[in-house]
Specification:
The chain is mostly beta strands. 4% of the residues lie in helices and 50% in strands.
Length: 322
C-alpha cells in the first residue's frame, strides 16, 4: 500500500502498532500495493501487456515495506504471460498476495490482450482485459480495544471474495525502444460491506499510466528513463526513474513524489534471468519510525519457440509477434 494514500490522518499517530488501523478514513479505500520496480511489472499493472516480451515470461516480486513498523506491509506477486499467435495476441495469469497487520489480500486474474500491428516495422498496440477474484480477510479477533479507533470495525474474523475486472491499452515500438500503457483496475468497484457495520466501504477504481524509453549509447550501454502515474479517487502518485544498463549490470534511481527516493541495482545473471533489488528511503514523517523498504524482482524470459500460424487468420509476418 502506498504511503501517499495514507498521509492525512497519519500525522497525529505516534505509536504505530497497527498503522493502518489508525487510518480508518482511508484504510477502507484499500489502495493497491505499490512496487518500486514497476518497469519490470508491466503485465502486473496492465493486462494489455500480456505477451509483450515476445516469449514466455515469468516475473516474481517481493516487497517488505516500512521495516521497523509492527504490522508493516508484506507483498508478493507472480505474473506469467506469453504471446499466442493463433489468438492474435497474448494471455497471462496474475497472482498477488498482500498482508498489512491483520489484513490479508489475495488477487487472482487471467488476462487476454489483442494485438494490432502498426506499420510494418514491428510496432504494435494491444488492447487487454482481465477477470478474476479478489479476496480480503480481517483477523479482527486479534485486535485489542485500543487498536480500534473506528467502532464500525468488527472485532472478529471476516472474509470476503468478490469478482474483479481490469482493462488497458499498451503500445510499444520495435525492440522495446519505447512503450506506453494505460490501464484501470477494479472496474466494478467491489464492495467491502462485510468488513464494516455501515456497509459503505468499497475498492475504488485505480488508473495507471506507465511509459519508458531506451536510448542505446553503445553496444553494451543503454540509458532507460521511465515514469509511473497512479490515481485512485482524488489521490494520486507520480514516480520517475532513470536507469543505466552497462551489460550485465543495471543501476538506477527513482523519486516518488512526497514519499521516497529509491536506489535500484540489477544483474542480467544469464541470457534468460534478470535479478533486481531496490531500496526505498522514506522522506515523509514515516522516516522517523521506519528504516525503509526493500524489494526483490526476478524476471525469467524463455527462449522464443516456433508458433503455429493458422492460415485462416491471414497472419503472415512472424515479426509481429516478437
Amino acid at each position: 500500500m502506498d504511503l501517499l494514500f495514507l498521509k492525512t490522518p497519519y500525522v497525529c499517530v505516534v505509536r504505530l502498532r497497527w498503522l493502518l488501523l489508525s487510518l480508518t478514513g482511508l484504510l477502507w479505500a484499500q489502495q493497491d500495493p505499490q512496487f518500486t520496480q514497476y518497469m519490470y511489472n508491466r503485465f502486473g499493472l496492465n493486462p494489455a501487456a500480456a505477451g509483450y516480451a515476445g516469449a514466455w515470461q515469468v516475473v516474481g516480486l517481493g516487497r517488505l515495506q516500512w521495516i521497523g513498523i509492527d504490522g508493516h506491509p508484506n507483498t508478493f506477486a507472480v505474473n506469467a504471460h506469453t504471446p499466442v499467435t493463433f489468438l492474435r495476441g497474448g494471455v497471462g495469469l496474475h497472482l498477488m498476495g498482500d498482508q498489512i497487520g491483520p489484513f490479508r489480500t489475495a488477487d487472482i486474474k487471467a488476462a487476454y490482450a489483442f494485438r494490432l500491428p502498426i506499420g510494418g516495422g514491428g510496432s504494435f498496440l494491444q488492447l487487454g482485459i482481465a477477470g478474476g477474484i479478489l479476496s480480503k480477510s480481517l483477523d479482527g479477533a486479534s485486535l485489542r480495544p485500543e487498536q480500534i479507533p473506528d467502532p464500525t470495525l468488527f472485532n472478529r474474523s471476516s472474509n470476503l471474495t468478490v469478482p474483479d475486472l481490469a482493462a488497458g491499452l499498451y503500445f510499444t515500438l520495435p525492440e522495446d525502444k519505447f512503450y506506453f500503457g494505460v490501464s484501470a483496475t477494479h472496474l466494478t468497484e467491489p464492495s467491502l460491506k462485510d468488513f464494516t457495520s455501515t456497509g459503505r466501504s468499497r475498492i475504488p477504481r485505480h488508473f495507471y499510466a506507465t511509459a519508458g524509453y531506451t536510448a542505446r549509447l553503445s553496444e553494451t550501454i543503454e540509458l532507460m528513463p521511465s515514469a509511473f502515474f497512479k490515481l485512485a479517487e482524488t489521490q494520486y502518485m507520480v514516480e520517475g526513474n532513470l536507469s543505466l544498463r552497462v551489460q550485465p549490470v543495471v543501476i538506477g534511481a527513482s523519486y516518488r513524489l512526497g514519499d521516497a527516493v529509491c536506489a535500484l541495482l540489477g544483474l542480467q545473471a544469464t541470457e534468460a534471468l534478470f535479478i533486481g533489488y531496490s531500496y526505498d528511503y522514506t522522506l515523509s514523517r514515516l522516516g522517523a519510525v521506519t528504516t525503509g523498504s526493500h524489494e526483490l524482482v526476478l524476471v525469467y524470459t524463455f527462449a522464443p519457440a516456433f508458433r503455429l500460424i493458422p492460415p485462416d487468420l491471414g497472419v503472415r509476418d512472424k515479426k509481429d509477434f516478437r
